[in-house]
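Morning - iron/sulfur cluster inputs below, output right after.
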Amino acid sequence: MSDWITITIDGKEIKAKKGELLTAAAKRGGIEIPVFCSHPKLDPLGACRMCLVEAETRRGKALITACTTPVNDGAVYYYNSERARDARQGTLELILINHPLDCPICDKGGECPLQDQTLEHGPGHSHFWEEKTHKTKHYPLSDLIMLDQERCIVCWRCIRYLQEWEDKPQLGLFHRGGETVIDKFPAGKFDAATSGSVIDICPVGALTNRLSRFSYRPWELDKTDSICTHCGQGCNLRIDSRSHRVRRNVARENPAVNDEWICDKGRFATGFSYHPERLQQPLARMNGKLEPVSWQEAIQQIVAGLQNVSKEHGPEAVGALGSAKLSNEANYLLGKFMRGMVGSNNVDYREGSAVLADPRGLPALGDVHDADLIVLMGADPSEEMPVLANFIKRAAKRRGVKLIIVHPRRIELSRYPGIHLAPMPGQEVDLFDALTRASLQAGGEAIPGWLPAEDGAWNTEDVRAAGQWLAQAQKPFIVYGADYAWGFGARDIVTALSNWAVAAGHDDRLGFLHAQANAQGAGDVGLLPNQLPGRRPLSDDEARSAIEALWQTRLPRQPGLGYGGMMAAAASGHLKAMIIMGADPVGEKPSDAAALDKLEFLVVQDLFLTETAIRADVVLPAASYVESEGSFTNTERRLQRAPRAVKPMAKSVPDWAILMHLAQAYWGELPASWQTLTIAAVFAEITRAVPQYAGMSWENMGAEGRQWQRSALEVGRELRSHDPGFDPTDRKYPFHLIIGNQLWDQGTTFAATTEMAHLGVMAARLHPSDAVRLQVTAGDRIRMHSGTGEITAPVVLDDSISPNSVFVPFSFLQAPVGELFDRFGQRTAVAISKVSN
Amino acid sequence: MSGLKDIVDGTREIALAMGVTLKTLITEAPVTVEYPDEPMAIYPRFRGRHELRRYENGMERCIGCCLCEAACPTGAIYVEAEENDPAKPLSPGERHARIYEINLLRCIFCGDCEKACPTEAIVLGHIIDLADYDRHDFLLDKQALLNPPTPNTIIRPDA
Ligand code: SF4
Ligand code: SF4
Ligand code: SF4
Ligand code: SF4
Ligand code: FES
């Protein structure tokens, strides 16, 4: 039996899918039925009556709402009948009774469905001349969103979005009839991480963007299809600019990546690109001070500086850091310059060689939509990838998918049914071993002694159940985050959790969640001290000669230093010169300043004069990603384009172009292997250097990007042994340090969005029972010190934190948590004392 | 043949015409305007240099809606709006123009901006002396457009 049926609208036969809504069927037949409350991503409701059509029923013709009517075979509808037209016209007249019609000052004006439909279907006059009902205008719902109650047409879309996608009912309707208003609940908050989505879906100008308020009219915007680079999901968005200034970001549909949602960071944190403190011109150190110089002079100084060091101390004395926030092209050319021209393998980025995760990232983000079990290990999507978090919430709520969460804190997603296991740092491997044994046993392979000791930090029943669930799941979505793949002990943890997936028969569904936009791509293109482009080891002779042929140069064979290694070598005086592109090691770990100060020569290219940049000999102003072109590879290996939306600020230049200039000056002329003068040409070369990217081009990446095949990179799949767990705490340092990402942080690009910077609140979080023990109360400052350093921070009491631990977020300059662990590890313990003031 | 007659007739015609001139010279006031020493009379519907009007209470009429900009066929107008500071609003309501610029070198004085304006803020006034020494002075900013010499120019009744 076919799923296709035939319906008749206005005498025209239309093929429709059985059970689909009349609005959708009509659309396929070329009839656009006007709607307000209906939205393709929200459940049908039938609140506004805009979509009235006539239907043939057993009792004659009747008016029905097309948006709530599933079509039946042979059904007959009239869209263009006089009665249906009158009904829609009447509905509009009623909707407009109290509408303020202040279109000229309304940010929606020009792209407002109410305007458009009034023009097309409206009466053109009104029977109502009475004074309109007045409600609250100019009502800030949050720091980000402005409400105008008078404009609301009570379509429920915002309410439904928050319920159906965020699962945070934070808006509701109050009063009745003409008095109905939309509002927050009494004393309630409006703080969902994707709250801005309601701006996109509100069919009128009731909910508008506060940060871009009155700064554009829709018709005058230049619209650039791009992506967000705030996290590894790579949500698709559109950058709307005018006069070469970004005005706003709106979501762009890409079903495979972000459906049609973006989070508030991606939507609102745009201010970095036009921040007044952006670097305007190159600076060079003269008599100890950074002074403005011309580009030519800056480049000459860099070439002289690097060549001196390289001649005197050998090329191994030069190192470079790239960035997981920058494009494939920038990172690729940095690697090519360092290896091919300078002759050093000292290249890395913060999330590079130190992260010991699956080099293929996540199998696919879309897997979450039909998963039958979701396993999150050391990842907190609500803070790291809010759009993915919403997908997970929806799976849990709508399809009853269970969650297994392994995380030292109770995270937002812990509120869904499932199992939460909270190993403290150091205990992870023991837990994963127990889970492995539980899964093996569930699969019939009994292994004696599989249960952990009763006094484990987790419940044995939970471990048994979790092991069983994973072994029995058909399509689990299994991810781990950087918390478990970075720093001291990470190799063992990743081995142990991979063992669990292997034991459960799901190693092909296990994936790593990159927190940074291009952490996957920077590695793919070879910015790693021990790997060539294409994630091939340096020792791979075939790969090396292929790259040598492409670059027409000899490549150094000795593996280089990684990020931590370079910092250590700088401190010990073995590394003499560095290029740091888009990274701020000193901001993350202020004590590394001493190491960088020891360098003979330091070049920094960045947007701002960071803590690292002030120590440089030459500082180059880089263009931000909205001002340059580039491709980014997200956590599911999807390559996506971020084209130039506005022209670079002042004298800033895109990172990839800076490297071209540098190469030209370093070599005296641009060698034949560097004649890649456009972004498309650089990308074309990358596709030749990175086998997994073969067949792609700047053009064929298209609007929705292209994924490279996971099968293009083999990763072993067997149970492997690893070192046992450990306990970093002792009597001197009794508290576990738990580090994690916080959505509102003070990362460079976010903090530079001045209007939002205050949202990023730095606090150390303690369990109330620990606070009692330490005699601190909320708001007190505490000092945390480990063997390597100390920081202070105000305290927030939070019972989602496990006792005997303290949570400190990353990326806060006032409390650089990097001080607390050495360059290679983060699983550590701290002592806490109250700061008396 | 009739040369003499032509001369006589011609002389008479000239004398008559000069008589009219002489009579008008004595009986009627001169119509020539000594511009720029004397002001010029301008017809009400004449479209001269733009002015941004205010309300009687001094508030700006312009709400920065950019409709004039959208209507302008030559792209002569540039507007950037801004939110009013509730303590010191420049215009009634929530919004005013932060930047308002008209490039007179582009303008063709069509009056479409005036037609588009929902608040009757921008009008083409009666200033006609538009010559200037510097190209840049043809770019009128908001201050130049506001506070015109004759405030509240009357809107054309048929506009
Ligand atoms: S919501 Fe639409 S119709 Fe209402 S004032 Fe705004 S633009 Fe006009
Ligand atoms: S605020 Fe907008 S989305 Fe929400 S109910 Fe009103 S009109 Fe609908
Ligand atoms: S008069 Fe016409 S050309 Fe001149 S600014 Fe107005 S709309 Fe533009
Ligand atoms: S002059 Fe009139 S049309 Fe132009 S921006 Fe101001 S209010 Fe809008
Ligand atoms: S669109 Fe059908 S009732 Fe609102």
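Note: Residues A 35-38, 46-51, 65, 67 surround FE2/S2 (inorganic) cluster (ligand 5) (CB under 6 Å).

O.
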